[in-house]
Specification:
Helix 6 crosses helix 7 (about 160-175), helix 7 crosses helix 8 and helix 10 crosses helix 11. The protein is an alpha/beta fold. The chain has 12 helices and 10 strands. A hairpin with a 2-residue loop joins strand 9 and strand 10. The chain has helices at about 15-20, 30-40, 55-60, 90-95, 105-110, 125-140, 160-175, 180-195, 195-200, 205-210, 215-220, 240-245; strands at about 5-10, 25, 45-50, 65-70, 100, 120, 145-150, 175-180, 230-235, 240. The strands form 3 sheets. The protein has a 5-stranded parallel β-sheet, sandwiched between helices. Bound molecules: D-malate. D-malate binds next to loops.
Length: about 250
């Protein structure tokens, strides 16, 4: 049984992957996926993605114990506890907490993936773990895989594409997969970029914007490959670590 690895390039096309019935790996390197992975690794109980600031505020009205986090134009919305910098999500701040997160494109990619049987969160930080879990689920349930790059406001995102290529590299190595042309292109880009991931990321428009607003450290942090062994799963409205799902 060969598993096909598809590629979708923006949050808005997630429903195509849902219709195919694929295992989805949602990728937003800068910074939504990296933040979710870091928060959960540091002990957050769950991250609840929502699309709008208002939705997040309403959730806190009902659940005053929730932390509110996210960004608009890269910055923390007024009244929120935290922005969208993975470095803010320390164990001291997030352990045992449920976090409502709203970001420009990353949380949209997750919400638009609703209806898929399995949705994983992927970034450079957990590329290997995300690939392994996606493959395990695809093999077990005879499904294909979609690497879904969130993009930025409906546009192509360099860092997400290269990260899709890093995950495709792991899937290819497992030997039971056929890469689509899109996934192959991402993988070729990753092979060129991998010797200097940070340098490549810095060439992207969003990384340059983050540097401009003083968030260079985030770009550095998010460019680390396989820092964490974590496979967060989005299910029933929240992202949790795999072992806390079951
Ligand atoms: C997004 O979802 O668009 C991002 O995570 C933006 C950011 O915080 O850099």
């Amino acid at each position: 049984m060969e598993i096909r690895v598809n590629l979708e390039l923006k949050a808005e096309t997630a429903p195509r992957a849902v219709r195919r019935g694929d295992v989805i790996v949602a990728i937003d390197v800068l910074r939504c996926s990296s933040t979710i992975i870091t928060a959960l690794t540091n002990g957050a109980k769950a991250v609840i993605p929502v699309e709008t600031v208002r939705e997040a505020e309403k959730m806190r009205e009902i659940n005053p114990e929730y932390l509110l986090a996210g960004e608009r134009r890269g910055l923390k919305p007024r009244g929120f506890d935290m922005g969208n910098s993975p470095l803010e999500f320390t164990r001291e701040k997030v352990e045992g907490r449920e976090i409502v997160l709203t970001t420009t494109s990353g949380t949209k990619a997750l919400r638009r993936s609703e209806g898929a049987r399995w949705v994983l969160v992927g970034a450079f930080l957990n590329a290997r773990s995300a690939a392994r879990k996606a493959l395990q689920l695809a093999v077990k349930e005879d499904l294909d895989i979609t690497l879904l790059t969130a993009g930025k406001r409906g546009r192509f995102s360099l860092e997400d594409f290269i990260c899709a290529g890093a995950i495709a590299e792991e899937l290819k190595a497992a030997g039971e997969t056929t890469l689509s042309d899109g996934a192959t292109a991402a993988n070729l880009a990753y092979q060129t970029a991998k010797e200097d991931l940070l340098g490549t990321l810095r060439r992207g428009e969003h990384a340059q914007y983050l540097v401009k607003i003083g968030l260079e450290e985030d770009v550095e942090f998010c460019s680390q490959l396989n820092r964490y062994e974590a496979a967060p799963i989005y299910r029933d409205g929240a992202v949790r670590l795999w072992n806390r799902q079951l």
